[in-house]
Amino acid sequence: MLVLEGYSVARLGPADAARLQPLLERCADYYLLADGAHPRPEEALQEITALPPNRLPEEKFAFGIFEGETMVAYLDLMRDYPKAGEWWIGFLLIDPDWRRRGLGGRLYRAAAELIRGAGATHILLGVLEQNARGQRFWTAMGFAESARSRYVSPITAQESVVLVMRAAL
Prior knowledge:
Layout (H helix, E strand, L loop, with lengths): L7 E4 L5 H10 L1 H8 L7 H7 L10 E8 L2 E9 L7 E9 L8 H15 L4 E7 L3 H9 L3 E9 L6 E10 L1
Parallel strand pairs: 4-5
Antiparallel strand pairs: 1-2, 2-3, 3-4, 5-7, 6-7
């Protein structure tokens, strides 16, 4: 289980979509950057249940991070993806009012500890080329670009380049 001192952490499933949706709406800046549109009403359910091809729901770990009753961050991890011994960070989203307080770094370090404890050797993630703040954050966390891929928004067909970043544990 993910442990983050000072916060409560809950593993989320499809029944928790209504708890996640308000955070996604408060983080509309990310969705505008990625998709050119605000999050849809079904966005939280989509985030919690989305899987890469040929993956099983039990390989995905979706976590809500709470301050009291308010979800202030969301973290999505995929075990042994894209291959055994590597984990993928699918999403790390922090409420705009909680950004720049060190929560992102603390959350990443807690996730890395969990992943390392599961025997993984590397963590990968994708960051949009236009997300300069995200690139700076992940570089500061020890990630380096390892590849590039194309992202086409399923909502607006907006195209982006995704920097695939990788870090050793």
